[in-house]
């Protein structure tokens, strides 16, 4: 199961890289035309692409998480972050920063916000549906071993 989600994540990551490279070289294909025609299509695309990538990576990593302590904000205490969501968000920020150096691209804070929202929803879905426990399942829910 882990290998399946790992390969699926890799394929989806390659798809996103293809989109990024196509945009970097100024390619104007059907996908880009559709995004331009749909109201808020750019933001919806960012949200959806990064939601799916983060969800797949969280599943591939079996819900692995790390804990972060907030010394400056003691009321927050410690917060658990899923590795998949964190890695996808860092990738999205790096990709957005790279647009400063590509003449045909325009960096947009709204894109980063849409990416963050997608990653956040992916983390909520992964926790809600118990991605980590999904990989520890042994036997049937009733306890029967058919």
* Helix fraction by DSSP (H/I, runs of at least 4): 55-70%
Largest sheet: 2 strands, antiparallel
Provide the low-confidence segments as ranges: 137-146
- Number of helix segments? 6
- Rg measurement, Å: 18 Å
Give the total of domains: 1
Shape: globular
Give helix and strand order, one letter per element, not per position: HHHEEHHH
Overall pLDDT level: 85
Q: Roughly how many Å apart are the termini?
A: 20 Å
- Class from helix and strand fractions: mainly alpha
Transmembrane segments: 47-68, 80-101, 113-135
Protein name: VanZ family protein
Keywords: Membrane, Transmembrane, Transmembrane helix
Report on this structure.
With 146 residues, this protein is mostly helical. It has one domain (2-134). 62% of the residues lie in helices and 7% in strands. It has six helices and two strands; from the N terminus they run H-H-H-E-E-H-H-H. The protein has helices at residues 2-24, 30-37, 41-60, 83-98, 109-128, 131-134, and strands at residues 65-69, 78-82. The protein has a two-stranded antiparallel sheet with strand order 1-2. Strand 1 (65-69) and strand 2 (78-82) form a beta hairpin. The chain is globular, with a radius of gyration of 18 Å. The two termini are 20 Å apart. It comes from Simiduia curdlanivorans. This is VanZ family protein. Keywords: Membrane, Transmembrane, Transmembrane helix. The chain crosses the membrane at residues 47-68, 80-101, 113-135.
């Amino acid at each position: 199961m882990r290998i399946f989600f790992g390969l699926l994540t890799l394929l989806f990551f390659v798809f996103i890289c293809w989109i990024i490279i196509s945009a970097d070289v100024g390619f104007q294909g059907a996908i880009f035309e559709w995004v331009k025609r749909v109201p808020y299509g750019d933001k919806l695309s960012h949200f959806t692409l990064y939601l799916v990538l983060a969800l797949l990576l969280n599943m591939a990593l079996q819900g692995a998480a790390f804990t972060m302590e907030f010394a400056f904000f003691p009321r927050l205490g410690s917060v658990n972050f899923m590795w998949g969501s964190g890695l996808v968000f860092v990738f999205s920020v790096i990709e957005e920063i790279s647009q400063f150096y590509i003449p045909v691209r325009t960096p947009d804070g709204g894109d980063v916000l849409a990416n963050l929202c997608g990653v956040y929803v992916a983390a909520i879905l992964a926790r809600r549906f118990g991605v980590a426990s999904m990989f520890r399942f042994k036997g049937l829910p009733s306890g029967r071993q058919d």
